[in-house]
């Protein structure tokens, strides 16, 4: 029976996700490296800002850090509580999930890889998609806690499967973002009104999340709001490329997209949103996508 929950990592996603947990649990611990954020969360949402050692005593522990390396380092510094379920919402590395899942099992606990999609607005509205890998019994036990933050909650396979699905999803988003940026640059070069073009594309077969939301809401209006940092996208596309490599497959579109995202990340200003991939095309073509 799950009675207490904890959330570790109150970043752009975690801060908003953890805000929903007090609706389901009386006791919700929060911890953040910059502890001021944890205190602010407690004041805002009625959670309890506690030391890491106390947070990991909860029955169910969520984490949402930049990388699997960060999660592994944090877990190596704590004592795993027997019977607890760790739900890692980081967009992480499948092999790391397998390793951590074995470690938790040895301690009589469970580790689920549970990355999310839906961006910060989905975190705010508790409408995230969770793609979950790992032990099915732990998944079923943790479901009520996950439901506090998610809309579509899908168990996709054994340990690491959730991270794999997330990496491929973000790679597909990047493919579409690159392709749509190229397509709109070509249309602008031919004097086409891009808003009218997107109206047509979004009612036609070429539409994608890039044409429906990213380009109109972040690029054409020149807002590029920082909600999902470009280095995090580059990390995700890198995980997807590793999956291809490990399976000894050939995936030229994915490989090229990874190079493009890396190039964009290498030239972007610090603290750039992922949508600034479009700016790389603008600098090459001297055409503004607006
Ligand atoms: P942010 O950079 O906004 O937040 C990162 C959080 O991790 C902060 O709380 C930060 O603490 C903490 N942190 C960073 N490094 C460490 C460390 N070494 N040890 C302990 N804590 C650490 O990232 P996001 O919230 O945007 O992303 C988190 C994860 O979610 C990533 O894997 C990302 O790919 C994924 N994701 C992001 C989405 C988005 O739209 N932003 C959407 C879906 C998934 P501090 O405050 O002290 O810096």
Automatic annotation (TrEMBL):
Q: Does the keyword Transmembrane helix apply?
A: no
Please list the GO terms describing molecular function: NAD binding; NADP binding; oxidoreductase activity
What Pfam family does this protein match (any one)? NAD_binding_2
Q: Which PROSITE patterns match?
A: 3_HYDROXYISOBUT_DH
Q: Which protein family is named in the record? A: Belongs to the HIBADH-related family.
Q: Which residues form the active site?
A: 166
What name is this protein filed under?
A: NAD(P)-dependent oxidoreductase
The chain positions of domain 3-hydroxyisobutyrate dehydrogenase-like NAD-binding read 160-281
Q: Which InterPro entries match?
A: 3-OH-isobutyrate_DH-rel_CS, 6-PGluconate_DH-like_C_sf, 6PGD_dom2, 6PGDH_NADP-bd, HIBADH-like_NADP-bd, HIBADH-related, NAD(P)-bd_dom_sf
**Segments forming domain 6-phosphogluconate dehydrogenase NADP-binding:** 6-157
**Biological process terms in GO annotation:** organic acid catabolic process
Give UniProt keywords alphabetically: NAD, Oxidoreductase
């Amino acid at each position: 029976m799950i009675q207490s929950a904890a959330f570790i990592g109150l970043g752009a996603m975690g801060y908003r996700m953890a805000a929903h947990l007090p609706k389901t649990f009386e006791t919700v611990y929060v911890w953040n490296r910059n502890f001021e954020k944890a205190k602010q969360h407690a004041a805002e949402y009625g959670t309890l800002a506690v030391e890491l050692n106390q947070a990991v005593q909860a029955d169910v522990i969520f984490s949402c850090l930049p990388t699997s390396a960060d999660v592994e380092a944090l877990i190596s510094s704590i004592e795993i509580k027997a019977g607890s379920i760790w739900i890692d919402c980081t967009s992480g590395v499948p092999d790391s999930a397998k390793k951590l899942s074995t470690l938790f099992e040895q301690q009589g606990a469970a580790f689920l890889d549970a990355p999310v999609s839906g961006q910060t607005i989905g975190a705010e509205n508790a409408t995230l998609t969770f793609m979950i890998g790992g032990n099915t019994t732990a998944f079923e036990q943790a479901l009520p806690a996950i439901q506090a933050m998610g809309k579509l909650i899908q168990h996709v396979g054994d340990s690491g499967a959730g991270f794999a699905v997330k990496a491929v999803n973000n790679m597909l988003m990047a493919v579409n973002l690159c392709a749509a940026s190229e397509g709109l640059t070509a249309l602008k070069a031919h004097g086409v009104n891009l808003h009218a073009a997107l109206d047509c594309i979004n009612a036609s077969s070429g539409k994608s999340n890039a044409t429906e939301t990213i380009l109109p809401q972040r690029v054409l209006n020149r807002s590029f709001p920082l909600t999902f940092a470009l280095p995090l996208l580059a990390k995700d596309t890198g995980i997807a490329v590793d999956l291809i490599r490990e399976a000894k497959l050939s995936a030229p579109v994915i490989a090229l997209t990874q190079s493009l995202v890396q190039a964009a990340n290498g030239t972007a200003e610090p603290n750039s949103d992922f949508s600034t991939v479009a700016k790389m095309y603008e600098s090459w073509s001297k055409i503004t996508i607006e």
